[in-house]
Amino acid sequence: MNQAGSRRWWALLAITLAVLAVTLDVTVLTVALPTLAGALRASESQLQWFVTAYTLALVAGMLPAGLLGDRYGRRAVMAAALVLFAVGSVGCAYAPSPAVFTAARVVLGLSGATLIVLALSIVTALFDEAERPRAVGLWGAANFVGLPLGPILGGWILTNAWWGWIFLMNVPVALLGLVALLALVPESRASRAPGIDVPGVLLSGAGLVALMYGVVQAGDSGWGSVSAVIPALAGVVVLAGFAAWERRVSRRPGGEPLVDLSLFGSRSFTWGVILTAFGVFGLFGVLFALPQFFQAVMGVDPQGSGIRLLPVIAGLILGAVPADRIAARIGARLTVAAGFAIVAAGLAIGTTTRAGSGDAFLAAWTFITGAGAGLGFATAASAALVELPAERSGVGSALLQAVVKLGPAFGSSILGSVLNGTYQHGVSVTGLPSAAAAVARGSVFGGIAVARELGSAALLVSARTAFAAGMDDAVRAAAVVAVAAAVLALAFLPARAHAAEPGPAPRPEAGDAAAG
User: Fold this and answer.
1) Same structural domain for residues 448 and 331?
2) Angle, nearest 10°, between helix axes 267-292 and 457-492?
3) 201 and 286 share a domain?
4) What is the DSSP string of 88-151?
5) What DSSP state is assigned to residue 512?
6) What is the residue-averaged pLDDT of the chain?
7) CATH of the domain at 364
8) 170 lies in the same domain as 207
9) Cβ contacts of 486 within 8 Å, gap of 6 or more
10) Cβ burial, residue 198 (10 Å; 0-12/13-18/19+)
11) Domain span at residue 108?
């Protein structure tokens, strides 16, 4: 490997370090909410907004982030985002009130969106068609490592140190990523600075935020609630208006839409995006249920829960790393279909999980599920990215990430509704006072709390058994999604993706001419 080629792979490591800060923050808050409730005197509604504000900002920032990178330089914008992410982390650690903490979470979400999008955009611009699948696979595998590290590190910190350190630990990671980014990654941008489609930015942001808000509300209040239906429908309507606006702009002479709709003329890009979203939907729906099972049914602490997610992450890495070589041998279509078939097989085994299931059984089926997901995700994402011309890689990657980021919200809301419905139907609250019965039926944690308060061993067993049955139903639904994804891959994904016709090459900065 020549020096330029070696430098590209070191640059990939720098990009991965930068995004690691974001993936840590995505999951670390899950174990910190009880502590924050006391430290900031936050209500249940304010705790919900700690999570929701970050999620909404993350989704809203996706498409504008790609545009800014294409226009002003991907390395420069990503460097600014790393600084902003460190500032937001400090703001969270020293927030004096829930309102300030929520504002800091918005800063983290916007800067995190920029980091996620531009990391993938830079990977797309750095690597050619032959190297890109492996680069994307390695980036995705390393990216997933941050998911279990969040709860593990967060649980340890909350047990042994001041809670603010769960956010301050982002600062050295972000600064290390900044140094590596500036030292190793060459600047790149679109060969001709794209115009700023202001109506497109506003419509896309408003539509995605409204849709995401509706989905988040559905997870809390049910899909039939007014607070979920109205925002979700409004989001769909606004996004339809956004699509119509983009089509109109693209037809104008010299028009520069925010989203290059011609990308959807490629089956590889379109179905690569769709299949990646399908996979994320199913996987994160399961990841939503598993920590609750570990803590409520098996009785482990948050740190132990994070450790028990390691098999699925190990599977993801094992599946993603060789995905490019497998796809080169049998083609993208069969590789993606095989990946989702393996996911379905792992989930089918998971549907036999019971309240008394042991660690070895859980590790086995989650590992199989993760391996199939890594194989399918890496190949589907590569199939989409190989179609992106370098000069539009920012917005193209942003579009992929915006769609993918909706997957976890839909997965946790829809599959969470399946789980909760089964739990509420199965838990036995006969003979309990009405207030206690409502708490017990509200969640498995409520059922366990009531059982312990009343000293009812029968209710404790019932709550845990009902939750295990609910998780089985959610896993069964995820398996159906995986089977559907495998069928769609066989039907619509091209056997082999081909790079889009090359546009003008990314414009290097003068000082970076030798860095590429």
Assistant:
1) yes
2) 170
3) no
4) HHHHHHT-SSHHHHHHHHHHHHHHHHHHHHHHHHHHHHHS-TTTHHHHHHHHHHHHHHHHHHHH
5) G
6) 83
7) 1.20.1250.20
8) no
9) 336, 337, 338, 340, 341, 344
10) exposed
11) 1-188
- Of 188, 210, 236, the one marking the end of a domain is 188
Residue burial 342-374, b: 16+ Cβ < 10 Å; e: rest: bbbbbbbbbbebebebeeeebbebbbbbbbbbb
DSSP state of 262: G
- Grouping H, G, I as helix, E, B as strand and the rest as coil, residue 252 is coil
pLDDT at 344: 96
Both tokens of residue 276? 């990646």
* Res. 65: pLDDT tops 90: no
* 215-230 residue pLDDT tens: 777 766 777 889 889 9
- Are the C-beta atoms of residues 288 and 410 closer than 8 Å to each other? no
Which residue, chain included where needed, has tokens 């089964």?
Answer: 422
Q: Are residues 405 and 284 in the same domain?
A: yes
Structure tokens at 102: 């929520």
In this prediction the pTM is 0.76
> Using an 8 Å Cβ cutoff, are 144 and 17 in contact?
no
Helix ranges restricted to H, 354-454: 359-385, 393-426, 434-442, 444-454
| Cβ partners under 8 Å of residue 180, min gap 6 | 13, 14, 17, 18
Distance from the Cα of residue 430 to its chain's centroid: 40
**Residues with Cβ < 8 Å from 166, sequence gap 6 or more?**
28, 32, 153, 154, 157, 158
Task: Report the domain count for the chain.
Answer: 3
d(CA 431, CA 497): 61
